[in-house]
Amino acid sequence: MIDLVEQKVRKSERERCQQHLTDCEGCTAEHESWWTFLSGLAPSNLTDAPTELLNECIAIYQKPEQQLSGFQKACVLFDSFLQPLAVTGLRGTMTEARQVVVGTDAFDVHLKVSGKESNQTIMAQLLPKGYIDVADAEIQLRVPGHAALLTRSNEFGQFTLKAVPSGPFFFLITLPPSGNMVQFSV
Fold first, then answer.
1. What confidence tens digit (pLDDT) does each residue in 56-70 have?
2. Whose CA is closest to 139, among 128, 129, 154?
3. What single DSSP character describes residue 36?
4. Total Cβ atoms within 10 A of residue 174
5. Of 20, 37, 61, which closes a domain?
6. Residues 106-127: what's their mean pLDDT?
7. Distance (Å, rounded) from C-alpha 164 to C-alpha 80?
8. What is the secondary structure of 118-179 as a DSSP string?
9. Were both Cys, which of 73, 90, 109, 112 would link to 102 (CB 3.0–4.6 Å)?
10. Which of 72-81, 84-93, 154-163, 173-182 has the lowest mean pLDDT?
């Protein structure tokens, strides 16, 4: 039966078997069973979809890459002076340090501002949301009426600014090597 399905029998014998299959339901069922099984094992003659169509389908389900270009949007996600926690100070004393979290498309900036108003210290860290390098980012802080303060982040995205005067803070962060910038004020 397998030779018949695989067409390995001589023409005269094939014709005789075909005649028998028209008369015998049992042999016909067995032939169809073997034909179905063996055709499932054979290589498919299907053609691949065009590459362009495959790429379009794949693009539908891919998360778009964030293109960092020019200035990025930033927004204040948390400010301890504007949104104090219910458990301020945890030991019953209110903390003097201001904690601010700023979010951008590419990274978050966690800021801690402490010290006297005339001589504050800002300790901060850039926390990337993806696979971007925040090491050696240039951080520029401008306080109206004062000279700009400059620093760079370390390998962990951390930076410190000392002797910061009081007033509104305007940050400009430039990421290496792309040169993309994020600007925000606190």
1. 888 787 765 555 455
2. 154
3. H
4. 15
5. 61
6. 90
7. 19
8. TEEEEEEEEEESSS---TT-EEEEE-TTS--EEEE--TTSEEEEEEEPSS--EEEEEETTTT
9. 109
10. 84-93
Token readout for 30 is: 């067995």
- Cα–Cα distance measured from residue 185 to residue 169, given in angstroms and rounded to the nearest whole number: 5
Of the pLDDT bands very low, low, confident and very high (cuts 50, 70, 90), residue 43 is low
User: Domain of 88: which CATH number?
Assistant: 2.60.40.10
Residues 79 and 162 in one domain: yes
Domain residue limits at 99:
71-185
Sign of CA dihedral 140, 141, 147, 152: negative
Tell which residue, 71, 68, 77, 72, has the closest CA to residue 186.
Answer: 77
Tell me the C-alpha distance between 122 and 111, whole Å.
Answer: 7
